[in-house]
Specification:
By secondary structure, this protein is an all-alpha fold. It has helices at residues 2-24, 27-48, 79-88. It contains three helices and no strands.
Length: 89
Amino acid sequence: MRGEGRRIFCSMSEELKTLLVQVITSWQVIGITVALLLFLSMVFYITDYDPSAKMHNIPRPKPPAPKKEKKAAAPEPDAEEDMDDLESA
């Protein structure tokens, strides 16, 4: 029994292999595959297309800003002068 089952599987395998080769190499399957690949590449091209991302819109690094010098702190008025101003008024 084991031998008979094995022979049936092998013969089905050969028939299946022949059938698959004929189907894969048929012009209809090759044509549909090529058309599908072209369609998908067009769809992905359209979805990735971004008109705002052109070469002239690439952000460029900004030049370093010139360093601002710190202003010298104005001398604080003495407390005595403030008192003199208040007394004279």
